Amino acid sequence: MIRIPPPTIRLAAQVLWQRRKEREGKLSGSSAGEGWDSWEGISCLEHHWESLPGSRKENFAQMAALVLQYMAAQEPGKESQAELEGDGVREVAGLLARFAANNHTVCDDELRPIGVGIYPLAAMVSEPTTPRRREGATSPIFAM
Q1: Exposed/middle/buried for 60, CB within 10 Å: 0-12, 13-18, 19+?
Q2: pLDDT grade, residue 21 (50/70/90)?
Q3: For 81-113, how does the pLDDT look when each residue is reduced to its tens digit (9 = 90+)?
Q4: Residue pair 93/64 in contact by the 8 Å Cβ criterion
């Protein structure tokens, strides 16, 4: 039986694959490594790593190992290449910490959750350090 990994694991793999394409120059337009929809935009997001308890860091490290296993299964023979490109457990764990602090739930037209997404510009808008932000407040963002 094939097990499909959780949305966060798949999203992390997608982000890392996009970063690889950015490094190789295989993207064009707004996704070519510049702007908010690139690795540069994601890497600017807060991760709060220093303030995380050890158990949470360990959890992110375990999830990072799953991301790398998933990527290796999708691209046989490239598992060592991911490590050489800097996509080690520590870096992927940091990415997952960014996700925990900045991800958004993607909903269908009836507001049922269907996945997760990382939208750096929207994450910057809803950053908890923003003075207008209130505890428990939500900021729906609608896209057409």
Answers
A1: buried
A2: confident
A3: 555 456 689 999 999 999 888 887 888 999 998
A4: yes
The rounded distance, in Å, linking the Cα atoms of 104 and 126 is 10
Instruction: Answer whether 100's CB lies under 8 Å from 52's CB.
Output: no
Rounded average pLDDT over 38-62:
89
Q: Burial, 101: exposed, middle or buried (Cβ in 10 Å; 0-12, 13-18, 19+)?
A: middle
- Burial (0-12, 13-18, 19+ Cβ within 10 Å), 22: middle
Closest CA to 49 of 41, 40, 57: 57
Boundaries of every domain in the chain: 10-125
